[in-house]
Amino acid sequence: MGCVKKLVGACLVVVLVTFLVELLILGIQNQRLSEAGDCAKEMRKLAQALILYSEAYDDRYPPARGWKKSLLASPSAERAVLQDDDFACGAKSGRIRFAFASWMGSVDRSTIERPEDTLVLSEYDGDVISTPEGILDRFHHGRVAIADATGRTRVVTAGAARALARAAKTH
């Protein structure tokens, strides 16, 4: 009978520890998803500045090379109250830069067939996204903040962001 009580007690300890570990993991995942949402909110300002830029320049996005300087030097930067530190997200896991899709450089927005499915900005390790495969999934537990050609920001899986980027690159 003593062995049964010890076994039941050990089982309860294992169940309790497992439950606590799962709660800890869920907490970490929720924190990372929350960070992704915060980054998407910060990216919204930059996405709107890109739209304002295009409205001032014959509906064209800035050139991919030097897009930040072009955006900051444009009248849209003042209208959007855009500053140099708006090009990154201050996530707890470290600063994450926002990058412009290179294939969108100097593109006329009116020629984009499906702007809601056209990736323009994403979290990235550099300033310009050169290939869709470069969009990493290490930032927010496999999630990435993106902005589309309508200026809408959202959080998607890195795989979905790469798929949107591939589709946009073929237009």
What can you tell me about this protein's structure?
- With 171 residues, this protein is of the alpha+beta class.
- The protein has one domain.
- The chain is 46% helix and 18% strand.
- The protein is built from 4 helices and 6 strands, in the order H-H-H-E-E-E-E-E-E-H.
- It has helices spanning 2-56, 67-73, 75-79, 158-169, and strands at 88-91, 94-101, 119-124, 128-129, 143-148, 153-157.
- Strands 1, 2, 3, 4, 5 and 6 form a 6-stranded mixed β-sheet that branches.
- A hairpin with a 4-residue loop joins strand 5 and strand 6 (153-157).
- The radius of gyration is 21 Å and the shape is elongated.
- The termini are far apart.
- Residues 23-33 have low confidence and may be disordered.
The count of helical stretches stands at 4
How many β-strand runs? 6
Count structural domains: 1
Q: Percent of residues in beta strands?
A: 15-25%
Ends: how far apart?
73 Å
Tell me, briefly, the overall form: elongated
What is the radius of gyration computed over CA atoms, rounded to a whole number of angstroms?
A: 21 Å
Sheet bearing the most strands, described? 6 strands, mixed
Describe the protein's topology.
Layout (H helix, E strand, L loop, with lengths): L1 H55 L10 H7 L1 H5 L8 E4 L2 E8 L17 E6 L3 E2 L13 E6 L4 E5 H12 L2
Parallel strand pairs: 2-4
Antiparallel strand pairs: 1-2, 2-3, 3-5, 5-6
